[in-house]
Design brief:
- The structure is a homodimer.
- Helices cover about 50% and strands about 10% of the residues of chain A.
- By secondary structure, chain A is of the alpha/beta class.
- In chain A, helix 10 (about 235-240) crosses helix 11 (about 245-265) and helix 11 runs antiparallel to helix 12.
- The first copy, chain A, is globular and about 60 Å long.
- The mean pLDDT of chain A is about 90.
- At the A-B interface, helix 2, strand 8, helix 8, helix 9 and helix 10 of A face helix 2, strand 8, helix 8, helix 9 and helix 10 of B.
Amino acid sequence: MQVNKQTLTVAIVGAGVIGCSWAAVWVRAGHRVAIFDSDISVLEGIRDRLLRNLRDSVGDPQASLAALEAGVVIHSTLEDAVAAADLVHESVAEKVEVKRELFERLDRVSKPEAILASSTSAIPLSQFTEGLLNRHRCVIVHPATPPHTLPATEVVPAPWTDAAVVERTLSLLEEVGQSPVLVKKDHPGFAMNRLQGALLIEMFRLIEAGVVTAADADKLVTDGFALRWAVVGPLQAIDLNADGGLEEYLARYGDIYDRMAMERHETERFVSPSLARELVKQFRDQLPLEQLEAKRSWRDQRIAKLKRLLAKKDSDR
Amino acid sequence: MQVNKQTLTVAIVGAGVIGCSWAAVWVRAGHRVAIFDSDISVLEGIRDRLLRNLRDSVGDPQASLAALEAGVVIHSTLEDAVAAADLVHESVAEKVEVKRELFERLDRVSKPEAILASSTSAIPLSQFTEGLLNRHRCVIVHPATPPHTLPATEVVPAPWTDAAVVERTLSLLEEVGQSPVLVKKDHPGFAMNRLQGALLIEMFRLIEAGVVTAADADKLVTDGFALRWAVVGPLQAIDLNADGGLEEYLARYGDIYDRMAMERHETERFVSPSLARELVKQFRDQLPLEQLEAKRSWRDQRIAKLKRLLAKKDSDR
């Protein structure tokens, strides 16, 4: 949705749910998009899926998208699709052998200066780029699903990824309206799925223990935390939830969460004293205690607006 | 915000952040509110805090609240505050001795048919109501913070809580616009804080391991999951994120999450096969696979609207 400095050509390789969503992200920002999928049965559905993504992301079912659509070309060979690409974005099956073979081909047929990005949600980049001649230009760009709707995006380099490639990828994503986050270690599951996984595991445990139903577990998040977290992140949220900020919150509730951590056979406490000190310092540097109350009002007014918007839910499907 | 069938008198005992937020919930729905706090220094700030909560929750800083304010009386003794109450809502310090002593008094000085509700976030109800003459009318009503902004509310009975009291509490909360969830077992941490705790613990781990910064950990939730979860809960979200629904999602990503569960020394898998089967059945009964794509469009259009609303962020404080 932003004006880009330079029109790029982005090759989308693998045109399933994620690939067609990425295509919408790049094309709506005014870039040229070249699409390829090895599964011929997929090809004819691509344009419909892409148009739906574009309409959904502008929130207007009647929007005229002819101009945007003109920027999209569907190719019948991988070579044609990537030939002119400044960035190649792969969203094929989550199989390491498939990705390894594809990246070997991409490394040969793409322009040597093109960035090679992977949408993988969990396979370490090192497992399928190690042997490449130009492995320094490979980087993981893993989106929240679907990226045309959700801006959060993990950027995960391999040990050999060039720092300039990481910087360029982060700034390109910012320019097209995504919200990129640098994941500094190739940690299993990266960061996003670890956060989601931690919440899902706890939900399954509570449902299995008969504490809440599945629908109610969803409702506790949808009608509670999610509204708050859409305005302030989970850490900032607890900082706002005690008059003395994070420090008071941790002093007051740390024991409860320590018990939770222990129940899970965690060897460490909920939060280490050194991390707690560091976070308290960060939060207080950003927002002095005397401004907490005003920030709470700001948060609450924003949440009230979100709720009014979402209250239209019941008349919708 | 809803028309209530009958005007009630609700006594708010403990007028800190949570008490004044609950007061706003009840008074904006047209009920009479009687407030008491044993800390005299708190009393003079109550009206300001309550007015701010009401303004924030209607989202209009200029709103005239005289009519609502007329429904609020601040009392100087506990006895006066609870004398006429149909529901007494306690939000005092999270100390079991304090609550035990207070509930003993409440049981003596309130109308025998009044519901006695506690906002405790973690102390089992059985620990401070066991010895009461009328313990059958005690129930935990634990809000997401703050309740005048966030509807999600846990209702947790003790083994001796009357089923009719639970039903009445759930329906009163629905009537005043909250989103109550029955927590069927007095599980440590109930359900809400266990969900939040699971996410926070994982965030702290990732920050401590140097994978992401604290600000980026917040951003991954704020600009990603929270937008999705405000529209569809975490379980429904994964159901929508594979063409074959939850069944395909679990088959495809279950291994990743199983590894996460094992790393935490969990003895069980991410999700047991029997729970997985039951959830797949529930989700398919609610939404046949052929309607998944249309539901995704609906989700994405709603998220696009939320994003537009939140994009005003930068011009705000």
